[in-house]
């Protein structure tokens, strides 16, 4: 669908761009440069939309905003009555300055590391920018991390200060403090210590912050983000101010409809994904950079999040596929309880057809939605699609989705329901997205083109290699002098397996370390089957197995909400999940789901047997990382008996 807009340079930038403009002012997207080997696309590259920054840092952003648009609301936060109150650019800059001066008053020196362990909150973003303004390096820590993990990150990073959300978190670290002699400061957000920092800094001259900001440049270390540690101890990714600016500047320009609303509504988002993860952090920085109103939602409980969305009413969201699957499955469950399941299914089919027709028109392979399809979509909009949009606050028109593949069908459904989903792919090492769906030319079921300024290469073994301004400097290693380069040749090996299609769109097929080789020598990637089954309303997680085994099997866990609805609709007694694992009716439903998933793969790659586990995979049990990735080795260890049983052991 054509999109017309005009662009203006961001701070530190010139007007150079790889977007061409037609006479009506609409952009013509520059397609990737493609390189082939033996007839296959092996490399795709997109030039940057904006030139790399040559000076300055993230620490400058609040002050530049205050100078350019002091009264513009750049953030919102809950007031004492629980209502959303806007924070102007001038107010935010003043708060950043005050807290930065407090950190200086506490004796923190340029380059010192300060750790932040809290849920997503206004204070998190304030501390982040204040630390940068004081010349410090921030280290995010998941609040759900174990004491051992927290101790490791604090020791490895050499953090001299830690800000926790609650007194309980600080108290839990008490026994570990003797092992952390470098940790000199412990602040508790809930105890008002952020305000206390601002008070302590009052005697410090403003010029001291100006001097420290002036010492920073694009190559200065900004943060050390630790990986989730699916295969061992977390590793610290050393990201510079220039890494973040290369990432967000190109993302803002490419996703112009998201960050620069074309209607009378100001662009805004409610961030609920963890700021400890680079995905959420990158979008928070992008919002401050683009002066998009940013709110924070600390609770992921359905009732809390739905209430926050209804009150804040964002225009776009940052999400992972699991959330969009839950919204879809919840809407269908509600329709089924009301006896409207057939109507919902028809509406879903219409939405998918509509989304696919729009995609075909954008790619030049079809005429777009027909008159009858437009009429059908208009009929179902107030009955189904508007309810979906209302569940997300009522004004959401765009979702930036990452973490794992969403799937073509669900992406098409949301597009048809009036919500464009821009899928992306990236890692902590790439400061977030390395590829993203281009707004003017979506391709459902892919993770898009290289983000402008990025190159993607497929190695001989299928591994995805990345290069670009957002790719990190290296891994943090205090025992080897700080930062150790991870890609001396300029290409970072991601550990993911994928392919590029003929137009440069990237498709992720699995993890290199998770490729299964059966006893018969068949190589298969478990991710497509796992992602498809995970989208089923009754399934929470799925782990596909078969390495050095005669055939493929799977461990399946049950989704609590989906099972509660299934029991209600099928007249089953409310019993705990462990009593349902052998229920014949449930197994029949799951078997049909497995049969459908098997259509995605060849016979040797198909799931022959599966086991329903009586418990879900959780972070507490060590089966999931804080970013909800499965720890394969831990699961295989804890459920070895169930796995052996599927192979007759």
Structure description:
This protein has 649 residues and is an alpha/beta fold. Strands 3-4-20-21-24-25 form a six-stranded antiparallel sheet, with no helix packed on it. It has a five-stranded mixed sheet with strand order 15-16-17-18-19. A hairpin with a 2-residue loop joins strand 3 and strand 4 (40-46). Helix 13 crosses helix 14 (371-391). The radius of gyration is 25 Å and the shape is globular. Belongs to the ATP-dependent AMP-binding enzyme family. Residues 1-18 have a biased composition (Polar residues). Residues 1-25 are annotated as: Disordered. This is Acyl-CoA synthetase.
Indicate the low-confidence ranges by residue numbers: 1-19, 21-26
Determine the CATH topology of one domain: Rossmann fold
Mean pLDDT: 90
Give the neighbour order of strands across the main sheet: 3-4-20-21-24-25
Task: Please report which band the strand proportion falls in: under 5%, 5-15%, 15-25%, 25-35%, 35-45% or over 45%.
Answer: 15-25%
Give Rg in angstroms. Answer: 25 Å
